[in-house]
């Protein structure tokens, strides 16, 4: 992850909880789109996931590194294969594109 610019020298991922928090946000949105819940419940789930992410991580980049690690552990057989490479591309875009919400919306 350091070689790909996801982590800087001396940085490390403290937990892979970001993967679960990202999935919780998706579940809330999917629940709304399938009419399993209403807007207030879905919004509450997304806000709660965001609150927990802000408690666990310092920045969008830190959250992203943890999300990428969790995704690799889930789908890439603990290797840095295609599931990893896809997220490296997304991470680079979100940390560099001037219109990225990561550069325009504070993490906390």
Entry keywords:
65% helix; mainly alpha
Description:
By secondary structure, the chain is mainly alpha-helical. The protein has helices at residues 17-33, 39-56, 60-75, 82-96, 101-104. The longest helix has 18 residues, at 39-56.
Short description:
The protein is mainly α and 108 residues long. 65% of the residues lie in helices and 0% in strands.
Draw up the topology in text:
Blueprint: H1 17-33, H2 39-56, H3 60-75, H4 82-96, H5 101-104
Strand content: under 5%
Number of helices: 5
Query: How many strands in all?
Result: 0
Largest beta-sheet characterization = none
Uncertain stretches of 5 or more adjacent residues = none
Question: In which range does the helix fraction lie?
Answer: 55-70%
Instruction: Please report the distance between the alpha carbons of the first and last residues.
Output: 24 Å
Rg result? 15 Å
Q: Output the helix-strand order.
A: HHHHH
Mean pLDDT: 93
Judging from the principal axes of the Cα atoms, what is the shape? globular
Given helix and strand content, the structural type is mainly alpha
């Amino acid at each position: 992850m350091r070689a790909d610019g996801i982590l800087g020298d001396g940085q490390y991922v403290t937990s892979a909880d970001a993967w679960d928090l990202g999935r919780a946000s998706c579940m809330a949105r999917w629940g709304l789109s399938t009419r399993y819940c209403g807007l207030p419940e879905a919004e509450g789930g997304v806000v709660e996931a965001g609150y927990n992410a802000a408690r666990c991580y310092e920045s969008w980049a830190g959250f992203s590194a943890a999300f990428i690690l969790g995704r690799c552990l889930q789908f890439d057989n603990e290797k840095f294969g295609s599931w990893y490479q896809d997220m490296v591309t997304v991470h680079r875009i979100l940390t560099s594109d001037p219109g990225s919400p990561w550069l325009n919306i504070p993490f906390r």
